[in-house]
Design a protein that fits this description.
The chain has ten helices and no strands. The protein is an all-alpha fold. It has one domain: Alpha Horseshoe (Serine Threonine Protein Phosphatase 5, Tetratricopeptide repeat). The longest helix has 19 residues. It is globular. About 55% of the residues are buried. The site of adenosine-5'-diphosphate has 24 residues, from α3, α5, α6 and α9. Adenosine-5'-diphosphate binds next to α3, α5, α6 and α9.
């Protein structure tokens, strides 16, 4: 069973929903070790994305839809996270090319290119207490799941679970990148907001793949 543009639209919608629901929590995390704008930044970006989603042509491919997310985030989200996440979607979209059906290998290629885009732009490594602490374990878990023959939905579930663990793993760390790096030891005990939001994004991707609507359109057709 593959994923298609219907999944992509559901992924984007769910992300916008969860970012809105979690806005205050993300603001709170960023208030603790940053400047408190992460929730607002993402909500501004994803509400602009949601507005544009309805205007996309019916036949838009997953890659085209995700590229729209990229350019919208880059132009509307301030702060470090806008260009970083924008680059993730841009590179991820490019990895999909003009595919209309995404198999497990395509899902892994998407996640890998997205993570590599963040690294290219932000130069963070695992353990620096950034969104990379969510993305890299997600990419690794996705690769392992796909290697075991998992369906795309299960690959995304594995990625999302690993990202959630990765976000939690940032709590004891000292930050080496971004605003939180100015805090030194004072960042210890706080979860990185960008790692948390990236894990929410990946959870949205997995949930969108697990819904009956996504399954119905990718099933017998
Ligand atoms: P700002 O830090 O400019 O206020 P946000 O609050 O929107 O921007 O985003 C902060 C998040 O960006 C951090 O929690 C971290 O996950 C991420 N981040 C910052 N710098 C980097 C980097 N160099 N590489 C990867 N992620 C980073
Ligand atoms: Mg901030």
């Amino acid at each position: 069973m593959t994923l298609d543009a219907t999944w992509t639209r559901a992924f984007i919608e769910r992300t916008a929903d969860v970012v809105r629901e979690q806005r205050a929590a993300l603001v709170e995390l960023d208030r603790e070790i940053g400047d408190g704008d992460h929730g607002e930044n993402l909500e501004r970006g994803f509400s602009a994305v949601r507005a544009k989603l309805g205007q996309q042509p019916e036949g838009a491919t997953p890659g085209q839809l995700l590229k729209m997310v990229a350019t919208t985030l880059i132009s509307t989200v301030g702060g470090a996270s806008g260009p970083l996440l924008g680059t993730a979607y841009l590179k991820g979209a490019a990895a999909l090319g003009d595919a209309t059906e995404l198999d497990s290998a395509a899902v892994v290629a998407f996640l890998t290119a997205a993570r590599d885009g963040v690294v290219l732009r932000g130069k963070a490594e695992v353990g620096d207490k950034t969104m990379i602490d969510a993305w890299t374990p997600a990419v690794e878990a996705a690769g392992l799941a796909a290697g075991d023959g998992a369906e795309p939905a299960a690959v995304l579930r594995a990625a999302a679970d690993a990202a959630a663990e990765g976000a939690a793993s940032t709590e004891p760390l000292v930050a080496r990148k971004g605003r939180a790096s100015y805090l030194g030891e004072r960042a210890v005990g706080h979860r990185d907001p960008g790692a948390q939001s990236s894990s929410l994004i990946l959870a949205a991707a997995a949930e969108a793949a697990a819904t009956p609507a996504a399954a119905a359109t990718t099933g017998e057709a």
